[in-house]
Amino acid sequence: MTDSERNGVERINQRAGRNVPAATAIGVGLLAGVLLLIWYVPWGLVALLTVASVLGLREMGRALALQHVRLVAVPVYLAAATMPALAYKFGLPAMIVAYTLCVLSVFGWRMVRGNDGFVRDVAANTFLIAYVPLLISFVALALAHADGHKRITIFLLLNVASDTGGWLAGVMAGKHPMAPSISPKKTWEGLAGSLAAAAALGGYLLPALLDAQWWKGVLLGLVLAFVATYGDLSESLLKRDLGIKDMSHAI
Fold it and tell me: Is residue 84 over pLDDT 80?
């Protein structure tokens, strides 16, 4: 690599706020591994979702502990460890029942500790169950369909396209922050890049994998990119409220 190329990479790293080559290598490797599981070892993907659910709850629990929220560990981790597999094997009713029982267990488990901070702890732990294992379980639920591997592939690749398109547009041309008080690096140019990349890939993937009209893929890409951006802003707001820079330290 020449000095000019090295300087160019360093400038991109500075603007992006991360080591771009390392992040790209990790992302490509993870994507390839997950796609292999989706297409050839669906139970392996369910196992991976379960691990992600448990690790995600641990990270969120540590973050909430900074605000003196006490984790009701047994029902919360039980939800993380069981809900993805139940959703995949037995469908939506089992997932709803598991979620309801775990939330009710939070009330009972927390009750024995007394009334000090009861509402705060119950509300936070109920949120944790919904935010991590419940949302993850929808992936397992979709995977259980006959064409579930194709649906999840589209969902995953559109997220990658949205994130990559938003990052490229934001780094190269981002000048107008969307919500500077929440996430200073998110720009309207980045949102436009996310929408364009996800819409373009959706217009190709839906006809190719699900034999659907191209315009449905474009619409799906637009909706997904918007929801992904909304989710990123929501997490940024959570981190600011909790007073932390990064939610996760696993990777």
Answer: yes
Mean pLDDT of 110-135: 92
Average pLDDT on 230-244 reads 84
Report d(CA 194, CA 192) in Å as an integer. Answer: 5
| Averaged pLDDT, 3-26 | 57
pLDDT band for position 5 (cuts 50, 70, 90): very low
Residue with tokens 């969307």: 178
- How would you write 9-45 as a 3-class SS string? HHHHHHHHCCCHHHHHHHHHHHHHHHHHHHHHCHHHH
Please state, as a whole number, how many other Cβ atoms lie within 10 Å of the Cβ of residue 223: 15
CA max distance for the chain: 65
| pLDDT score at 8 | 47
| Concatenated DSSP letters of 94-158 | HHHHHHHHHHHHHHHHHHTT-STTHHHHHHHHHHHHIIIIIHHHHHHHHHTSTTHHHHHHHHHHH
Strand partners, 187: 177
Is the pLDDT assigned to residue 212 strictly greater than 70?
A: yes
Question: Which neighbouring-strand residues pair with 172?
Answer: none
Between 90 and 168, the more confident residue is: 90
How far is Cα 60 from Cα 53, in angstroms, rounded to an integer? 10
Name the nearest CA neighbour of 95 among 49, 146, 134, 40.
134
* Residue 187 φ/ψ, nearest 5 degrees: -125, 160
